Q: What sequence folds into this?
């Protein structure tokens, strides 16, 4: 009996000893230094933030183009013996090389923003096409403004055939027949002003002005123009006329401001 008691006590004592050793090991393990942290793989961008500049706004520039000097005598268009052309006019057809209104205002002047728009500006072309028609064996309008990428529709509303011959340099030139009632479409990507003629009827002449943005205007006889929806800034405004040449002026506009900028052209 005593032996059994001693044996049991020995077992419990041994178990207690092992428990104390395990507790000590666990406790010492808690004093071990924590494993080193791995360096973060996250990177911080060093690229500067791009501050976008508005490409449109609420400013506007408007004005009148005037002619100064002695008004030259304008030529009468000679349509020869082409009866189908002559019979569509009740009076002589005058050359459109210089179209003047009351008080010698100038028509067919291209007015556009030459420089000053934001460098990041990109303008989608209008989805609607612009038209250059042939009516009474005359190109209408005489000067056509179009945004780069916009479709130009060349029409023939006459009862006689014509051909459209473009003399563009930066854009692809072409020479194609357009039968009566017919039309053809073209689009231009590069900014330039180019001459258009009809080889069948040599008096038929016109111009197309391709502009890389929507801030342009072609004047009527009253010489008035308006360029709207400009962002605030300093601009160079350029005007062009087929006979009277080019001019530029500098101007600054603020948001919501509408400023007047007139030009005077003269024959050199």
A:
């Amino acid at each position: 009996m005593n032996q059994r008691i001693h044996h049991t006590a020995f077992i419990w004592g041994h178990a207690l000893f092992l428990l104390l050793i395990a507790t000590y090991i666990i406790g010492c393990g808690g004093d071990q230094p924590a494993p080193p942290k791995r360096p973060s793989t996250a990177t911080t961008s060093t690229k500067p933030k791009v501050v976008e500049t508005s490409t449109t706004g609420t400013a506007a520039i408007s004005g009148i183009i005037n002619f100064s000097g002695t008004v030259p005598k304008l030529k009468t268009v000679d349509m020869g013996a082409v009866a189908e052309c002559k019979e569509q006019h009740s009076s002589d057809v005058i050359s459109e090389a210089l179209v003047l209104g009351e008080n010698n205002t100038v028509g067919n002047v291209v007015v556009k923003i030459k420089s000053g728009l934001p460098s990041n500006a990109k303008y989608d072309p209008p989805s609607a096409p612009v038209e250059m028609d042939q009516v009474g064996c005359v190109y209408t309008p005489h000067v056509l403004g179009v945004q780069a990428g916009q479709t130009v529709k060349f029409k023939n509303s006459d009862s006689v055939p014509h051909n459209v011959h473009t003399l563009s340099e930066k854009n692809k030139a072409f020479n194609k027949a357009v039968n009566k009632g017919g039309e053809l479409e073209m689009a231009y990507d590069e900014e330039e002003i180019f001459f258009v003629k009809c080889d069948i009827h040599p008096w038929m002449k016109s111009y197309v002005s391709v502009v890389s943005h929507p801030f342009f205007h072609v004047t009527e006889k009253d010489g008035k123009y308006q360029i709207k929806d400009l962002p605030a800034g300093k601009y160079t405004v350029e005007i062009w006329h087929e006979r009277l040449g080019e001019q530029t002026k500098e101007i600054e506009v603020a948001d919501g401001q509408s400023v007047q900028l007139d030009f005077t052209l003269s024959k050199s």
The first helix runs from residue 2 to 29. The two ends are 141 Å apart (CA to CA).
